[in-house]
Write a structure and sequence with these properties.
The chain is mainly α. The protein contains 17 helices and 5 strands. The protein has a 3-stranded antiparallel β-sheet. Helix 3 runs antiparallel to helix 15. It is globular. One of its GO terms (cellular component) is basolateral plasma membrane. This is Proton-coupled folate transporter.
């Protein structure tokens, strides 16, 4: 039995490398799908069509010969369907397995679950390397995504990293640590989207995949040999034996079994709000990219990359804002949520009326705090729910987020195409309206809570006193809290 002593080993590198790798892999997959489908989209121009008129829109471009044209509308439509299939191949199994693995991490430890998800990512990129090197069919990519979905997909990586952070932080410092982790995750995804285009144009699709492969190997080595376990061995238990017990544990998250009655209502309200915000923000982000490459904005590849980079900077500015909010002791989580939602609403309204490049690049400035609400809601939920169920909580949040992305992608994508002949920016006005309703509902919730100031930085909600536990469970709680406090003050010591 070997022991590893680490002064300040954290889980943030695992989250950053995993999400950077997944985002870069998605960009490579997208480009490969476009290249495979491009020959089908090359057509002759219709008879009696003015060549100048045909080339005057954003959606049509020539190939190397003037006799054939690349119909980008057809290409985007077919590629969009395949990319959706690839996403669903990972999301559908990932939603179910992430809940099981989230509960499993509360019972057996965080490291083993992170290792399972990282191995799934390694299998996925290995199959992508095989497909692209051998120029195989797009269908083979589905198997890699299914394998990653069975291992939990990115939902498990994010959920367990969040739960790990909750394990090693006090409630006073948890919000800022979760915001830091969310910033690294968002920044990693955005950075991969920004650099992938330049790299693929210069070196092709294979070198980025080898980088993804290497990052997954580094993650596995880091988890096995360097990352300490936060679930103390003496207090671990065997995984649940049947599916019924897993369902019971999930249902208890919304009942009095885990948190007090008042807080359980708040858990439900926060989760519903999280879903609504995720649907609007993630769905409108996809629609925003579609809006930017079409008339009247007509962004080219370079401007799309710059715009994506500017949107990525929102994660950093949100972190800076939350850090500054620490110096305002009377600022409760309610007001932070309201400020973040107002920023997101302003960005969507500005997008709806943006018809020039300059206005589109002002959108990230208006949405400078748009990423604050989701991160703060995660922290608030973590403080409410008993620490024995942090893995389950963040797995549920991850499932809600990924389902919200899928819902937003389908709803707002369809809404954009249905309303663009009326007003191209109507989709974003509808999204802003939904966020405004959510903002009002959160305000009403705060009103009925009696204007209690649950400050996200100084609040200390003690939920374990309200859980009906035996004396042995109480001693377990004290032991785990003492161990986690010792790790925060003196570093971590893990034997494995």
């Amino acid at each position: 039995m070997r022991c590893y002593y680490m002064k300040r080993v954290t889980v943030e590198p695992v989250a950053f490398l995993a999400l950077f790798s997944l985002s870069l892999l998605n960009q490579v997959s997208q480009q490969y799908v476009f290249e495979k489908l491009k020959p089908k989209a090359e057509t002759r121009p219709p008879k009696r069509t003015n060549l100048t008129d045909l080339l005057s829109t954003c959606n049509t471009s020539t190939t190397s010969t003037t006799l054939y044209f690349l119909d980008e509308n057809v290409l985007r439509s077919e590629a969009g369907q395949w990319l959706l299939y690839l996403k669903l191949a990972a999301i559908i199994p990932g939603v179910f397995t992430s809940l099981i693995l989230g509960i499993w991490s509360d019972k057996t430890g965080r490291k083993i679950v992170l290792l399972v998800a990282s191995c799934g990512g390694l299998i996925q990129v290995s199959l992508h390397l095989l497909v692209i090197n051998l120029d195989l069919s797009i269908h083979v990519l589905l198997s890699g995504n299914i394998a990653y979905g069975i291992s939990g997909y990115a939902v498990v990586i994010i959920a367990i990293c969040m739960a790990y952070t909750a394990d090693i932080t006090s409630k006073q410092e948890r919000t800022i640590q979760i915001v830091i982790l969310s910033t690294l995750i968002g920044f990693g995804k955005g950075l991969a989207e920004f650099v992938s285009g330049y790299w693929e144009e210069a070196h092709g699709l294979v070198p980025p995949l080898w980088l993804v492969f290497g990052f997954n190997v580094i993650n596995i080595i880091y988890i096995i040999f360097f990352l300490p376990e936060t679930i103390i061995r003496e207090y671990r238990s065997r995984p649940l034996g049947n599916c019924k017990l897993y369902v019971i544990n999930i249902c208890r998250l919304f009942s009095n079994g885990i948190c007090r009655t008042t807080w359980c209502r708040l858990v439900t309200i926060y989760l519903v709000s999280f879903f609504v915000i995720a649907v609007v923000q993630l769905g409108c982000h996809e629609a925003m990219l579609t809006y930017s490459i079409n008339w009247p904005v007509c962004f080219g590849k370079e401007y799309v990359r710059y715009f994506s980079g500017a949107m990525t900077c929102i994660f950093v500015t949100s972190l800076v804002a939350v850090k500054l909010f620490q110096f305002v002791p009377w600022l409760s989580h309610h007001w932070i949520l309201e400020i973040g939602l107002l920023s997101a609403i302003g960005a969507l309204v500005l997008t709806a009326f943006a018809k020039t490049t300059a206005l589109m690049f002002i959108v990230p400035v208006a949405g400078i705090l748009a990423q604050v609400p989701l991160a703060v809601l995660r922290a608030c939920l973590s403080k409410i729910v008993d620490f024995h169920h942090q893995g389950l909580l963040f797995a549920v949040i991850g499932c809600i987020e990924i389902i919200g992305w899928l819902t937003g992608y389908l709803v707002f994508g369809s809404l954009y195409h249905a309303t663009k002949h009326i007003m191209r920016g109507m989709t974003f006005l509808i999204g802003a309206g939904v966020l405004a309703i959510s903002t009002i509902l959160l305000g009403v919730t705060q009103f009925y809570q009696g204007y209690r100031s649950y400050n996200v930085f100084v609040e200390s909600i003690t939920t374990r006193d309200d859980v009906s536990t035996s004396d042995s469970e109480d001693s377990e709680t004290v032991a785990i809290l003492g161990e986690n406090q010792a790790r925060r003050n003196h570093g971590y010591q893990s034997c494995g």
